[in-house]
Amino acid sequence: SWTMHSFIEANVQAIREKVGNGKVICALSGGVDSSVTAAIIHRAIGDQLTCIYVNNGLMRTNESESILRFFRQKTKLNVIDVDATEFFLGELAGVLDPEVKRKRIGLGFIKIFEEEAHKIGEVQYLAQGTLYPDVIESVSFRGEAPIKSHHNVGGLPDVMKLDLIEPLRELFKDEVRELGLELGLPEEAIYRQPFPGPGLGIRIMGEVTRERLEILRQADVIVLEEMRKAGWYRKVWQSFAVLLPIQTVGVMGDGRTYEHVIALRAVDSRDAMTADWSRLPYDLLGTISSRIINEVRGVNRVCYDISSKPPATIEWE
Ligand code: XMP
User: Fold this and answer.
1) Which in 23, 77, 163, 165 has the greatest CB count within 10 A?
2) What is the per-residue pLDDT across 9-44, written as a single tens digit (0 to 9) for each?
3) Which residues line ligand 1 (CB under 6 A)?
4) 265 near 205, Cβ under 8 Å?
């Protein structure tokens, strides 16, 4: 559209003036905000931009692979990738408290990101996909990329002393999507549901272990497959599985089972500040439930979360 076209022109110009010959780094998550941020900055300054993708081991099934394949095959971005799975799972061992999990993941991310920035050397700018809702709700909004979460703390890590470039600061998510399409990003990148920085780490209630990650991944991939198949993936803001920290009794054949519970969460929203649970068709809920119970070993019960935000949040932690 004309508006997006002139938005791009103005921003490209402003980024060029600000950056000059400097170097910019950007943390890519695979999500629409950081992808669009990288795309517009790349349009302005090309290879003065280096993107860093950190796999924290908390991604959905095959997601890191597919994100990296996408950037390498479909964009001209210069992307460094770091597999920090071992490090993050180590940081999370024995941690039950949701806020401690978030802190460890956030700090871990900064540490890894900073190491990579040092290897690049002489970086002056940090690009972030901050949106308008993040700006106005910056105190209470939990949905921040981890890198932003310590801005007010003394003794800042080096990457946070960098000058910020935030080209999306005035936009809502639907406008970011429009911008991304205008910049030539394919629909698969644009219509990806939001995914939190701490990933599956905050969708596993209680301790994050490899075994529990595996259960959640298997359930989650079924949710996404069935949502897509039924044409509901794009109709909702987010849809995902959560692994609960309890076991419940069930029956199989003539034996008693005592296994895990998966909660399904699907919400409608414009900007994540408020949300309502999605009125998914019963048949779709039924299909998802029976597939999870039949196909995911160790799960014998599925529940649907019918809470709105507020007073609940979208994520469970
Ligand atoms: P809540 O759970 O606060 O989530 O209703 C609002 C939106 O933000 C996402 N979210 C995050 N995104 N880092 C992120 O990048 C985070 O730490 C984080 N926590 C929540 C959540 O998925 C929802 O879209």
Assistant:
1) 165
2) 999 999 999 999 999 999 999 999 999 999 999 999
3) 142-145, 194, 196-198, 238, 272, 309, 313-315
4) no
- The torsion defined by the Cα of 301, 307, 309 and 315, in degrees rounded to 10, comes to -10
Residue nearest to atom 3 of ligand 1 (CA): 142
| 221 annotated as ligand-binding | no
Mutate to test the pocket of ligand 1, among 58, 88, 110, 142 (most ligand atoms within 8 A of CB): 142
Q: Which amino acid is at 238?
A: Q
Q: Contact, 253 vs 260, CB < 8 A? A: no
Tokens of 72: 């390498």
Confirm or deny that 307 is annotated as ligand binding.
Answer: no
Is residue 161 a contact partner of residue 124, using CB atoms and an 8 Å limit? no
Helices (H), 121-203: 132-136, 173-182, 187-190
Say which residue, 1 or 233, is predicted with more confidence.
233
Q: What is the pLDDT of residue 152?
A: 45
ipTM of this model? 0.99
Q: What is the C-alpha separation between 210 and 123, in angstroms, rounded?
A: 35
The Cα–Cα gap between 195 and 86 comes to 21
Ligand 1 centroid distance, CA of 221 (Å)? 19
Single out the residue of 128, 135, 130, 111 nearest to residue 24, CA to CA. 128
Domains of the chain in sequence order = 2-190 (3.40.50.620), 203-304 (3.30.300.10)
Cβ-Cβ contacts under 8 Å for 120 (sequence gap 6 or more): 23, 25, 50, 80
Using one digit for the tens of pLDDT, what is the confidence trace for 104-163?
A: 999 999 999 999 999 999 999 999 999 988 887 654 445 444 454 444 445 678 887 899
Output helix, strand, coil percentages for the chain, rounded to the nearest 5. Answer: 45, 20, 35
pTM of the model: 0.91
